[in-house]
């Protein structure tokens, strides 16, 4: 896998989680037990919080890509603006809007 292909996979994963935070892919430069790669996800739990880091995967490049795919698949989908509005009661649920529009 080339660096460009790896960057593309990271960009696609970032898009699939709604561009929340950033992914870091680190390639080990040493021999021995420290060798290999790892992927981390850096994010802010709230807009005013310090940045937090979550380990996504470690091992070979293939291991890290597989771990990234699993992480993205299990990542909770962020709420849309419409869903937030309905939760806060600012936007009525769909059924009510359709009833009002049909009257």
Structure characterization notes:
This protein has 103 residues and is an alpha+beta fold. Helix content is 44%, strand content 20%. It is built from four helices and three strands. It has helices spanning 3-16, 61-74, 81-88, 94-102, and strands at residues 22-27, 37-43, 52-59. A three-stranded antiparallel β-sheet has the order 1-2-3. The protein is elongated and about 60 Å long. The mean pLDDT is 84.
In short:
This protein has about 100 residues and is α+β, with helices and mostly antiparallel strands. Helices cover about 45% and strands about 20% of the residues.
Helix content: 40-55%
Low-confidence segments, given as residue ranges, are none
Number of helices: 4
Portion in strands: 15-25%
Distance between the termini: 59 Å
Helix/strand/pairing category: alpha+beta
The biggest sheet, with number of strands, parallel, antiparallel or mixed sense and barrel status, is:
3 strands, antiparallel
Strand order of the largest sheet: 1-2-3
Radius of gyration, Cα only, in angstroms? 19 Å
Label the overall shape.
elongated
Order of helices and strands: HEEEHHH
The residue-averaged pLDDT reads 84
List how many beta strands DSSP finds. 3
List keywords for this structure.
3-stranded antiparallel sheet, 44% helix, 20% strand
Could you give the topology of this structure?
Layout: H1 3-16, E1 22-27, E2 37-43, E3 52-59, H2 61-74, H3 81-88, H4 94-102
Antiparallel strand pairs: 1-2, 2-3
């Amino acid at each position: 896998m080339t660096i460009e292909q790896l960057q593309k996979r990271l960009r696609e994963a970032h898009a699939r989680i709604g561009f929340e935070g950033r992914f870091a892919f680190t390639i080990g430069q040493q021999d021995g037990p420290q060798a290999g790669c790892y992927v981390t996800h850096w994010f802010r739990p709230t807009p005013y919080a310090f940045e937090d880091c979550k380990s996504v995967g470690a091992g070979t490049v293939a291991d890290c890509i597989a771990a990234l795919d699993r992480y993205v698949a299990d990542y909770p989908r962020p709420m849309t603006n419409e869903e937030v509005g309905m939760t806060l009661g600012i936007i009525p649920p769909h059924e009510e809007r359709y009833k009002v529009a049909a009257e």
